[in-house]
Amino acid sequence: MSIAAAAAAASSISVATNSFKNVTLSSRSPLPSAISVAFPNRGRNTLRRRFVLISCTAGDGSKPTILVAEKLGDAGLKLLEAFANVDCSYNLTPEELNTKISLCDALIVRSGTKVDRAVFESSRGRLKVVGRAGVGIDNVDLSAATEFGCLVVNAPTANTIAAAEHGIALMAAMARNVAQSDASVKAGEWKRNKYVGVSLVGKTLAVLGFGKVGTEVARRAKGLGMRVIAHDPYAPADRAHAIGVDLVSFDEALATADFISLHMPLTPTTSKILNDETFAKMKKGVRIVNVARGGVIDEDALVRALDAGIVAQAALDVFTKEPPAKDSKLVQHERVTVTPHLGASTMEAQEGVAIEIAEAVVGALNGELAATAVNAPMVSAEVLTELKPYVVLAEKLGRLAVQLVAGGSGVKNVKITYASARATDDLDTRLLRAMITKGIIEPISDVYVNLVNADFTAKQRGLRLSEERFLLDGSPESPLETITVQLGNVESKFASSLSESGEVKVEGRVKDGVPHLTKVGSFEVDVTLEGSIILCRQVDQPGMIGTVGSILGESNVNVNFMSVGRIAPRKQAIMAIGVDDQPSKDTLKKIGEIPAVEEFVFLKL
């Protein structure tokens, strides 16, 4: 269904009285003030709406189904079982996974299961969350997940210390030939002279990838008396300097280091980043540790560098293909120490990862924003907390705006304006843009829209969004003063919603943590964005609030807030009425029959 066609079926009702059918207010001056009348909310929560990302509990109350495809700690499984039906099926073939996935709302994997496009296609739209129990997500097709509206979350913190400790353990074991000498003694040998090692103190360690694990490795290496440098194009220099680490270029790191420790994700940019060319730039006798991803090293090139003496030793926990071939020259090399992907394999880390990913998956299925989402607009937990009420405001403004569009109009151009006292670099609007997109598309589309695929869905439908920021004077304590949404080149079913330049325009702000509608077209109003809203254009005269309130009261429709914005006394005004329930058509008809009411519209939130 196209946006233009679907708009006609949107769930809103608009009425214009016969005597004012052709009246428009597209060139009204802004009102100098708004008059507000508050009504008791009868015990309702001030801010009830959840910050919905996805919601997978069926309408009949049945539990969602979560497929756990690789072993997960008991603590995590208990959390999952308290919320959902849990299917623990390990070592599935791709065919078996594709068959099962159509019956599942969420999937949890570690690094051994490939979640490719075929998995998302086989799910037929039911799969809403993929949880990666660990940090790396190179085994999940993120573009396919986004296209199919599936959120991907990981567990980036629980195994950080375990991975860092394993990196340090491998570095020390490699430097002192622990694995080789252990095997020699167990074979009945006693070759002390053969396994003379090197000291760590005073050596230069280059940490390639200065994220969470890389930072913890650096801290521990400093404690061992090593000089630590790091390369990461995204790492802030102040964070590195705070722990005594110098950020350097990639080439400088290679040329300077006695030890190199890899802590980067596997991406097209980092794939085989250590190769014949980069090995040639290294100091002869360098030692390499990899507890990140096997694919970041060209394994054949590493064997050549070992044989040539460029690399003295290597300690590897990860491989391009896992498990590696039994006859792998790299694994069998005498100067290579290997472990079977044990970076996160401590009892504490396993339980921590299980709990972290279980909480993320359950939270996402329960409709909560996930701070560990990897294919949704990413903001820090602190910013996410601060933006929560603005997230609600953004989606509701989108929903209001699109319901004001007349059925024959196609929504193509959306302009979003943020008014804030904060500098551009200090205001991340990606999450807000996604929620406005969701609010505009979802009420008039048969496509399921969430934060993950909002931009993708908008692009598919030819929806062009532009953002503008208006810098205000004053204190930047609050992230935003107002958000304005304008839909261009459309007809409106409520003429008063048109701005001076002819766009459907709504504006809102957050007051005391609660989203408010503050402007419709050129008229200022003030109404909380809860329940639903009735907008009336009327002649400003005594008794209007009481007349409309009485009609709603007689129909047992509770009014939670009312605001009137006017041009001048006894002229035209906009009445915005917040209602908890949807009025019947007869009730709305009675409002439309009031002589002073020129037009009105009912909008569902």
Automatic annotation (TrEMBL):
Keywords: Amino-acid biosynthesis, NAD, Oxidoreductase, Serine biosynthesis. SUPFAM superfamilies: ACT-like, Formate/glycerate dehydrogenase catalytic domain-like, NAD(P)-binding Rossmann-fold domains, Serine metabolism enzymes domain. Residues 533-605 form the ACT domain. Pfam families: 2-Hacid_dh, 2-Hacid_dh_C, ACT, PGDH_inter. It comes from the Eukaryota. The keyword Oxidoreductase applies. InterPro entries: ACT-like_dom_sf, ACT_dom, Ado_hCys_hydrolase_NAD-bd, ASB_dom_sf, D-isomer_2_OHA_DH_cat_dom, D-isomer_DH_CS, D-isomer_DH_CS1, D-isomer_DH_NAD-bd. Its EC number is 1.1.1.95. CDD domains: ACT_3PGDH-xct (cd04902), PGDH_4 (cd12173). It catalyses: (2R)-3-phosphoglycerate + NAD(+) = 3-phosphooxypyruvate + NADH + H(+). Pathway: Amino-acid biosynthesis; L-serine biosynthesis; L-serine from 3-phospho-D-glycerate: step 1/3. Belongs to the D-isomer specific 2-hydroxyacid dehydrogenase family. PANTHER family: D-3-PHOSPHOGLYCERATE DEHYDROGENASE 1, CHLOROPLASTIC, FORMATE DEHYDROGENASE 1. This is D-3-phosphoglycerate dehydrogenase. It comes from Camelina sativa (False flax).
